Amino acid sequence: MSEQNTNLSNLHLAVEGMTCAACSTRLEKVLNRQQGIATASVNLANNSAAVEFDSKTLSVTDIAAAIAKAGFAVPRETYEFNIIGMTCAACSTRLEKVLSRQPGVEEASVNLATERASVTGPAGSLSAQALIQAVAKTGFTATPVQNEAEQLAAAQKQAEARNRAEMIKLIAAVVLTLPLALPMLFMPLGMDLMLPPLLQFLLATPVQFWIGWRFYEGAFKSLRGGAGNMDVLVVMGTSAAWGLSTWVTLKGGGHLYFEASAMVITLVLFGKWMEGRAKASAASAIRALMALRPEVATVERAGVLTEIPAEQVRVGDIVVVKPGERIPVDGLVIEGSSQIDESLITGESLPVLRAVGDKVTGASVNGDGLLRVETTQVGAESTLSRIIRLVVTAQASKAPVQKLVDRISEIFVPIVAVIALGTFLAWWLLAGEPQTAFLAAVSVLVIACPCALGLATPTAIMVGTGVAAKQGILIKDADALEQAHQCNTVVFDKTGTLTEGRPEVEQVVAAGLDVQELLRLMASAQQGSEHPLAKAVLRKAEADQLQLSPVSEFSSFPGRGLQAEVDGQRLLIGSRRLIRETLGGFGELDNTAQSFEDQGCTLMWIARMVDDAGELLGFIAVRDPVKASSSAAITALKQLDIEPVMLTGDNPQAAQVVAQSIGIEQVIAEVLPEDKAQQVQSLQQQGRKVAMVGDGINDAPALAAANVGMAMSTGTDVAMHTAGITLMRGNPALVADALSVSEATYSKIKQNLFWALIYNLIAIPLAASGMLSPVIAGAAMAMSSVSVVSNSLLLKRWRGINN
After folding, report:
1. How many CA atoms lie within 13 A of 522 on its CB side?
2. Helix, strand, or coil here: 535?
3. Surface-to-core class of residue 545, CB atoms within 10 Å of its CB (0-12 exposed, 13-18 middle, 19+ buried)
4. How far apart (Å, rounded) are the C-alpha atoms in residues 162 and 536?
5. What letter does residue 372 receive in the DSSP assignment?
6. Does residue 39 contact residue 52 with C-beta atoms inside 8 Å?
7. pLDDT digits (tens, 9 = 90+) for 367-403
8. Torsion of CA 137, 143, 145, 149, to 10 degrees
């Protein structure tokens, strides 16, 4: 009897992106081939996968990754929390470790700059209450993030109250510290204006324990959690200075250091206040997006116009948008036409004409026309909400380089404490100077700053993703940002990416039957299809007012064509490749077809099948116009020393015509959808870092296989879900801009980390040598964080290549 595996776990995952039985069958095969999966069953009816797997061999993340690689997506559940009580990188690192260990958690990210935690796992596997309790045990406070509008109002209110309280304490600290600090300025002039010891004690004590209480509180929570942070260093240094001075005051005689303890706390508070203002500026992109949300909407119900709060609009409601108003919902224009300003959503600077049948996006601004709009998406599913979620997620994510920073932050405080102790003992025991020993040790404790290290990466990512969003580039996470700036090859899908994706029939060529009859048969066979070529044929048939016949026995050959029965005839419709494989040749139509392909047309062939034999009936030539911006996009990439490649299922001649017109040298044609990912991997095996740009469901596996996937927002949701970067306009020129902003952001991250590390490497030895007083050390520590954040803010100057 075989031994039962006790590590087997059952998992039920929702799967997005399956459209037919072929999808579910393929996914089931992919999962059952994975090592560690005992059984996998995929259900197309309820879009789910039931998996029994070895929890020691595989994780939920591994299974989700396998599903994504197959071109589908697993919905995640993410809890967002506001975290109160973090003061430096050591805090965020410790909390992230605690959250990562909670049951059901796939990924946990704690961002010091935004003071938020994001916890992700399969839908239904996480408990918000359990996560909040885990945070509380670590010594911090977590509150769930509300919807974006409520969050904005609540966050602004809290920030204003916190800023007022901090400003009051900062002013009080300055007032109490100045009498202690000013006499020091007159000492070089031979003037002794030092206050009596008791008065110094009375001025310094409130600064130490009332104004500086936040540092004691932070240090206690940090040490209780088993780690040290910036607060521990400040408390150790200032408490030593205050404690020694108090003992000297009570004993009588000796040097006092009240001015050092008070000034260090005041300067650190001032640095924290400036850092807070800079961090608020870095997060301005999110606030700007949230502020776009309209508050009211004019809804037409039972013929009566009523103004209601925008959040109360339901799908299907008719919304009336007057000239100059902000459109409150995503919807479809059912009456009227107007120029719409979508610049704050898509980055498109020029107004766009929208008429009956066109989609409009909530938060865009109506021009001079009156519109009646049928609501299609509201609330969390609106375009604006999804943009905000993407930007928030990106800003909360951690770059791979941050893992190294987190490891440094973990050991930073203990190392500094040891250096301070060593400094004290060296000056006292070896040099015999207890006063210098004390001042040098305090200076080491005060000047060491893990905050600058902790803020170096997240603040740059906050500003970089924010400025990218304003230009219509939505970056999913920091990993996509890092991968993008390393890319040296960009692979473009042709249809809908470099071309308009709205092909039109150029010519119908028939052999042995009427041209209109061929068009009718081909249109009848493709009724209901969403393929761009099929839509072109159906539009032509509708324009010619042809009466279509019912279709039956329909079967699809992905990337090649279809077979269907119309009027009792079994028809085969598809590419040159499908006809060649089935019929063996093209007869007298070959030369005519070749001339159309040489002009850049795509051909759809049709044959009548009888048993295993077939009769070629003709073809329809379709032309998909190249986007006006494609040529400039390719030129911009070449200026960045990035090689563009075209990947298409089209015939080589038509693909080559398009490629030559826009400047692409390398073309990979006649590629089946399932082989696109393999072509991307082949380029990667040549040592290339590949970005893949696409817009369709059949592009999803290639987007997942690339180092970074870029999806056009004009395409499918599956493509956008798989991609690391979403381009909000169907403009391929945004590809170069996306690579440019990622390069600029990573350049800032490297600068920030360099200066933060150099600061500590230089400042700590200087302090240990006795060359810096605690006051100078405190000022330097405060300014180090501010300088890192300010450097990140310079990213706001970034402009796209085509701007």
Report:
1. 35
2. helix
3. exposed
4. 60
5. E
6. yes
7. 888 899 999 988 777 888 777 777 776 766 667 776 7
8. -160
Residues annotated as catalytic (active site), given as ranges: 493
For the ranges 42-46, 280-284, 526-530, the one whose mean pLDDT is highest? 526-530
Can you tell me whether residue 695 is helix, strand or coil?
A: coil
Which residues does 188 contact at the CB level (< 8 Å), separation at least 6? Answer: none
Phi, psi of 103 (to 5 degrees): -60, 135
Q: Are the CB atoms for 245 and 196 separated by under 8 Å?
A: no
Give me the residues paired with residue 81 across strands. 117, 144
Q: Edge to edge, what strands does the sheet with 37-43 contain?
A: 8-14, 48-54, 37-43
189, with CB counted inside 10 A (0-12, 13-18, 19+), is: exposed
Q: Give the dihedral of Cα atoms 107, 110, 116, 118; nearest 10 deg.
A: 0
> Would you state the structure tokens that stand for residue 466, as one six-digit string?
């924010």
Task: Name which of 465, 448, 486 is nearest 113 in CA terms.
Answer: 465
Tokens of 24: 């579910």
Alpha helices, DSSP H only, in 70-147?
Answer: 89-100, 128-137
Alpha-carbon separation of residue 72 from 66, 67, 69, 296, 381 (angstroms):
9, 6, 7, 37, 20
Q: pLDDT of 627-651, one tens digit each?
A: 888 999 999 999 989 999 999 888 7
Q: How far apart are the first and last CA of the chain?
A: 71
- Of 453, 456, 458, 451, nearest to 229 by C-alpha is 451
CB 548 within 8 A of CB 559: no
Residue type for position 247: W
Q: What per-residue confidence (pLDDT) applies to 740?
A: 92
Confidence of residue 172 (pLDDT cuts 50, 70, 90): very high
Could you report the per-residue pLDDT of 255-271, keeping only the tens digit for each? 777 887 888 788 778 87
* Residues comprising the chain, all counted: 803
What angle separates helix 60-69 from helix 21-32, to the nearest 10 degrees?
Answer: 130
8 A C-beta contact, residue 443 and residue 427: no
Give the model's pLDDT for residue 739: 93
| Measured torsion, CA atoms of residues 399, 401, 406, 412, in degrees rounded to the nearest 10 | -150
The dihedral built from the CA positions of residue 271, 273, 274 and 280, taken in this order, carries a sign that is positive
Closest-CA residue to 233 (of 207, 259, 215): 215
User: How much of the chain is helix, strand and coil, in % rounded to 5?
Assistant: 55, 20, 25
Would you state the structure tokens that stand for residue 668, as one six-digit string?
């990979």
Query: Which amino acid, residue 149?
Result: A
